[in-house]
Amino acid sequence: MARILLIDDDEKLLRVLTLRLEAMQHQVTAVSSAQEALNRMGDVQPALVLTDLRMPGMDGMELLDRLQHLRPGLPVILLTAHGDVRDAVAATQAGAASFLTKPVRKEELARAIEKHVGPAEPEPAPGGGDSESGDLKTKNPRMRELMADVKRVAKTDCSVLINGPTGAGKEVLARALHEASPRASRPFVAMNCGAVPAELLESELFGHKKGAFTGATSDNLGLFRAAEGGTILLDEIGDMPAELQVKLLRVLEQREVRPVGEARSVPVDVRVLSATHRELEELITAGKFREDLFYRLNVVRLRIPPLDERREDIPLLVHERLRQLQARGAPKRVYSPDAMQRLCAASWPGNIRQLFNVVEQNVALSAGEVISVGQVDKALGEPEARSAVLETFDEARDAFSRDYLRRALELCRGNVSQTARVAGRNRTDIYKLLKKYDLDPKSFKPRKN
């Protein structure tokens, strides 16, 4: 279920569209003017805006421009009469998500909304375990598939290995899996295996008795027992010492832990998730990771892509971080359209963690409400190089479009029809874009042996 802000000065059409959207299980706020829509933005917090292009007073074009400053990244779909198609195309080039011509068919409306906010689903009941984490909102096809897999595997109790680069959100994904599972009401406990000294890791995981070693002044349950009935995430599992891998394997096989200094084992009921930025198969070959432990952990593997491969999610992530910072008392800030474009075009070796660091720095140092492209360049640390590479909005958009098409073709193995479906465009548009950006779909087809 998505929150949709609907704007049209035609009261009859407003009622019809409201009924259609509500029948799709969306939550609709309907208003008759652009100014009223702006006034309601704060309390509605829409996931998508659906607005008429031609309206008295402030029209859809001006509303689009205002929303780009107020809520960068918010999808705006324009409704147009047949004679306004040229204006609608111009609006799309100015940042509108898409446009629909009147009269709007129900199926066409549903497809357009699903493209930008995902399929409509009933809102989860309290405690139902469906993750609403802002970090997992996505427009990316691979991430949508990943989240569908998360929901499916969450219903089981098998071990899951999460692969992904540093800062990409592995712990967030693990938490979403826990919250979507029958264990959601019980604890979620995370431990970074590479952040704790090897001599203390066993005690932290399995607990210890008072006096078991120097400094053990009281009993310690350990994280496995602290997570009883819930989920434990062993982050950076590839950094776990070899001697502890043996003990972890025993815990997974016997479902019991033995605290340090204790003569007997204690049963535990915990789901084990693990995560790593490394390829464990390579560590196995190098003799640094046990193969039998790998198979215990790798019942299901989920791979989270780096941020550079899901650039269309950057505006969503930025908006969510701004909202979180404001909720914690930070001043209200928004990104200018050029600044947002710079964020979308930048390289992110540190992934979401690096992106959030830049956002927090911009919020902390910005003197005004609107964060400029210069402030983004300064936070990225390479102002001259970045300005030289992407001097205009059009150049940045072209760079993003070329990269998106290249990744879509790779995903679809050079199949143009599948690429068109993934991109939500028709084949004619895709062929035009391929010609524009000098991309040959044949070069993406798998080679025959």
Concise summary:
The protein is an alpha/beta fold.
**What is the CA-based Rg, rounded?**
25 Å
Structural class, judged by helices and strands? alpha/beta
| Mean residue pLDDT | 83
Number of domains: 4
* Unreliable stretches covering 5 or more consecutive residues: 121-135, 383-391
CATH topology of the largest domain: Rossmann fold
What gross morphology would you assign? Answer: elongated
Order of neighbouring strands in the sheet with most strands: 2-1-3-4-5
Could you give me the name of the CATH homologous superfamily of the largest domain?
P-loop containing nucleotide triphosphate hydrolases
- What kind of sheet is the major sheet? 5 strands, parallel
Describe what this molecule looks like in 3D.
- The protein is an alpha/beta fold and 449 residues long.
- The protein has four domains: 115 residues, Rossmann fold (3-Layer(aba) Sandwich); 170 residues, Rossmann fold; 85 residues, Helicase, Ruva Protein, domain 3, CATH 1.10.8.60; 51 residues.
- Helix content is 47%, strand content 12%.
- Strands 2-1-3-4-5 form a five-stranded parallel β-sheet, sandwiched between helices.
- The chain is elongated.
- The two termini are 47 Å apart.
- About 5% of the residues have low confidence.
